[in-house]
Design goal:
The chain has 176 residues and is an alpha/beta fold. Helix content is 48%, strand content 11%.
C-alpha cells in the first residue's frame, strides 16, 4: 500500500530496470498519475493513461464504452511493447480484482515481471486532493466530486495481502 507516491518516487534510483508491467491501482485522487509520471521518467517506461488520451481525442472522460475500448487497445499495445522489451505503466485504476488478475496473467505468459502499486488515502483526503485538482481544471483530468467518489469507493475492490503477494516486488532501485 502506498500512502505517499512522491516519497516512493524520491527513494527510487534507476539501476538497470528490467522490462516489466506496472499496474497503478487506486481511486481518483490517490496519486496514480503523479506516481506514473515519476516512474515513467525514472525507469524509463511507456505510460498509458486513458484519461489523457480520451481528453486529447475530445472524448468525454465518462464515456464508459470509449474508455473500455481504449483500455482494451492499451492492454494489447502493452503486450506488444513488453514483447519488445519495453516497460509499460498502465494507469487504469484497476478497481476490480479480475482486471488486475487479467493483466498479471497476460504478462506472465510473456515471462514479464508484474508490479502492482496500490495507492490509497482516506476518503476525506481523496476529496481534498480532487477539490484541488478540480480547481486547476487541467486538461485530461476528470472533474470528480465527493458525491461521485463515495459510490466509487463502494465499488472499489481493494487488493488483499494475498493478492498483493501474487505480484512482483518493484525492481527499480535494485541491482538485477
Amino acid at each position: 500500500m502506498i500512502d505517499d507516491p512522491e516519497a516512493l518516487w524520491r527513494n527510487l534510483v534507476d539501476a538497470g530496470h528490467e522490462p516489466s508491467l506496472i499496474l497503478l491501482c487506486g481511486l481518483p485522487g490517490s496519486g496514480k498519475t503523479t506516481l506514473a509520471k515519476h516512474l515513467a521518467d525514472a525507469i524509463p517506461a511507456v505510460r498509458l493513461s486513458p484519461d489523457e488520451w480520451l481528453a486529447d481525442l475530445g472524448i468525454d472522460l465518462f464515456d464508459v464504452q470509449a474508455r473500455d475500448r481504449l483500455e482494451r487497445r492499451f492492454s494489447q499495445h502493452a503486450q506488444d511493447l513488453l514483447k519488445l522489451g519495453q516497460s509499460v505503466i498502465l494507469e487504469f485504476g484497476f478497481w476490480s480484482r479480475s482486471e488486475r488478475d487479467d493483466q498479471r496473467l497476460r504478462a506472465r505468459t510473456l515471462g514479464v515481471p508484474v508490479e502492482l502499486h496500490y495507492l490509497t488515502a482516506p476518503l476525506d483526503e481523496l476529496c481534498r486532493r480532487l477539490d484541488a485538482r478540480n480547481e486547476k481544471g487541467e486538461r485530461g483530468t476528470a472533474q470528480i466530486t465527493r458525491e461521485m467518489l463515495e459510490p466509487y469507493a463502494d465499488l472499489f475492490e481493494a487488493p488483499t495481502g494475498a493478492e498483493l503477494a501474487l505480484f512482483d516486488e518493484p525492481t527499480l532501485g535494485r541491482r538485477g
